[in-house]
Amino acid sequence: MPLGPRTDQTVDFGAMQMVRGRAFAMGHRDREAPVGKAWLLLDGRQFLVEEVAVADVAASLDELPEPPPVSLKPRNNSVRHIVSSKRLLPEPPLAKVSGNVMHVPRLSSPAHGVVLDYLTINSAQTNFTFKADTTYYISGSVNLNGVTTIEGGTVIKYAPTNSASVTCLGPVNSLSAPYRPAIFTARDDNSVGETIAGSTGTPTGYYATNALCLNGGTSITMQNLLDQLNVD
Fold it and tell me: For residue range 111-155, what is the model confidence (pLDDT) as tens digits?
């Protein structure tokens, strides 16, 4: 199924995009040609098909060395197919089943220790960023001035008190994504993020007054936020 020498689609996977590609001759980076691509459904399977116009790479093709001669003489008088008359797609790969037992190493937690993997916030901040892959513990009323940035993958946990809350007094920059949300949850929720000191591991009742209060006076777009608070 020819794409046409100039056909090109932007393939969007959400967090990643494939834009217009370029082909070049090895040893001659100044010789470039646009590469067209399309995301096609063939025989019930998805394929990424890429194509470059022959005219765009003709000069480089002419400089390639001649291939070695190939003998087309059939062996044992058998029929030898040189070119297929139809498109033959590769067979789907099959998973291999092994009877071996997978061993997973495990290190038990010490009876005593100090956890430094989460940050406690209980005072006002300016131009604050809730960073990805970081756990934050909100134990009181927190006012955030300036620009507040919420990255995807951040985990914000709240104390089981009415005073725990976060109020954004300025613009909010939401950088979360469908498969990398920002999570707002309880101190006693150990299913995500780091375990907070004093956590029971069983969220019960209500946590925080307002998990996130937007009071910046400007239009704010929030996306991909996961709220796991207020569970019975």
Answer: 444 344 567 887 889 999 999 888 999 988 999 999 999 998 899
For the chain, the helix, strand and coil percentages under 3-state DSSP, each to the nearest 5: 5, 35, 60
What count of residues does the chain have?
A: 232
Across 172-207, b (16+ Cβ under 10 Å) vs e yields bebbbeeebbbbbbbbbbbeebbbbeebeeebeeeb
| Placement of tokens 């046409």 in the chain | 4
The per-residue pLDDT for range 6-46, each reduced to its tens digit, is 567 777 766 667 776 777 776 666 677 788 888 888 888 88
**Sequence-ordered alpha helix ranges (H) in 18-64:** 54-62
What phi and psi, each to the nearest 5 degrees, are found at residue 57? -120, 15
Q: Provide the whole-model pTM.
A: 0.49
Please state, as a whole number, how many other Cβ atoms lie within 10 Å of the Cβ of residue 65: 5
